[in-house]
Specification:
This protein has 248 residues and is an alpha/beta fold. The chain is 32% helix and 23% strand. The strands form 2 sheets. It has a 7-stranded mixed beta sheet. Strands 1-9 form a two-stranded antiparallel sheet.
């Protein structure tokens, strides 16, 4: 069944109907110990398509044991002759390295869930025109939509939100949205990390970039490489997601 809880004033809902318009690529059930979150595109609205991106992609990577993925990425970094602190970032990574990275990543037991926003659809929603409010709303929605896969999960996010106080306020709001629907605590810890220091944040960025290239540029060559690990790509149109409760 679907249940909607009371959200904080900061993240006030803009609608109450669950979204059904999404693209289901693969159906997998997974309760994850770790979740990684990163994005592609931006949350601005000035001069869409020229000053700011037409699309914004938020990607959630779920994994129970991140150790083998960390090790594989470091081995690939060495094989490519990259410096230890050199990042894999989709926008700055050459085509052959993108392909090798995504080809390696699909060998691992990860589950990818993504939210895609065509920002032109939100122009009539002034409450989402603030970059901070939009980002908070999108993070909340993708986690609510995938609530059945979260239980005592450690969430690691790219450091989009800066400043300790702002991060703490964001974390509190997110926990209220995710943890107060029933007796199950979905989020155990929330960490904000710079991508340079976390290879799995970099992996999430690479997947976000592949999805963005598919939507914004009709280039599926990268998405096709990681598609076996994609659970869902959800086209979000601005309505609030109800949390999914597993009746079992």
């Amino acid at each position: 069944m679907l249940r909607i809880g009371t959200l904080s004033a900061l993240n006030e809902a803009v609608g109450r109907d669950p979204i059904s318009s999404h693209r289901q690529i693969e159906a997998r059930q997974l309760v994850s110990t770790f979740a990684y979150l990163d994005e592609s595109g931006d949350t601005g609205f000035k001069r869409l398509g020229s000053g700011t991106s037409d699309y914004f992609v938020l990607t959630l990577v779920l994994i129970d044991d991140p150790g083998p993925v960390y090790a594989a990425i470091e081995e690939l970094r060495d094989a490519l002759g990259m410096a230890r602190r050199e990042e894999f970032r989709f926008a700055k990574t050459a085509h052959p390295r993108r392909e090798r990275f995504l080809d390696e990543l699909r060998r691992h037991d990860i589950s990818v869930r993504a939210l895609v926003v065509h920002k032109a659809l939100l122009l009539g929603k002034p409450e989402l025109r603030s970059q901070e409010a939009l980002y908070a709303t999108l993070v909340r929605n993708i986690l609510l939509r995938n609530g059945e896969a979260l239980s005592e999960t450690t969430l690691v996010m790219d450091e989009y939100i800066r400043g300790r106080r702002a991060q703490q306020e964001f974390n509190t709001s997110l926990r209220r949205a995710l943890n107060l629907h029933d007796d199950r605590r979905r989020l155990r810890e929330i960490h904000h990390r710079k991508s340079q220091g976390d290879a799995l944040i970099q992996a999430t960025d690479m997947i976000s970039g592949a999805i963005y290239a598919s939507r914004a540029r009709s280039n599926d060559r990268y998405l096709d490489l990681i598609k076996p690990r994609i659970h869902e790509i959800w086209d979000w149109d601005g309505q609030e997601q109800a949390i999914r409760i597993d009746e079992n």
